[in-house]
Structure formats: C-alpha cells, structure tokens
Amino acid sequence: xxxxxxxxRPLSPHLQxxxxxxxxxxxxxxxxTGAGLIVGAFLVVWWLIAxxxxxxxxxxxxxxxxxxxxxxxxFLSVWALWWHxxxxxRHLIWDAGYGLDVETxxxxxxxxxxxxxxxxxxxxxxx
Length: 127
Known about the structure:
Elements: H1 25-53, H2 55-65, H3 68-95, H4 102-126
C-alpha cells in the first residue's frame, strides 16, 4: 500500500526528541576531542619547527604559544588528551565485554568527566 504521508514526517527521531544521557554525551565529546587534538598537535609541531628554524622565528611562535590564548589552547588540548584517552579505555573495557549494563556505563561516563578534569589540573600544576 502506498504511503500517503510520504515526505511529511521525519525519517527517524533525532536530537530534539531525545534528552541527553550520560552514556552518549561522553561518546560525542570523545569524537570532538579527537578532532580538537589536531589543533594542539599542529601548534606543538609548529613550535618545534620554529625552534629548528632559528631564534627570530622561534621567539615569535613561542610568544604566541605562551600567550594567554596559547595557554588556554594548550590547557584545553591537555584536557582533550586526557578525555580522549579515558574514553578509549572505556571503549576497551566495553570491547572486552565488561561494563555494558546501563548503571556501570553511566558510572564510567561520570568518571571520565571527573577524572579528566582532575588529571588536567594535576598536569597543569606539575608541568
């Protein structure tokens, strides 16, 4: 039988239908941090190339990276690195067949949030 409402309804439920859950928000942030780590990596590589290029070029790039904006970008890059690593560990645990129930999965998601912040602050203090 032909569908008379074709084109008048959504193809599938989307984000406006579902409320955010602890199990999928960290997964989305894990993807974002993975892409965001590229920015920090480019800055570090740029800084290393500048160090090899000479003192004049290095001083200008070093000024950029050690400025307030550079510090914020580097701090967020460290947070993204910790978040991404902890998210990867969570996925390894899932791949081994553990922690797949909703309660454990939510605890791991909340743990990633808290532990990534704590590890980032500790890294900033130590380094």
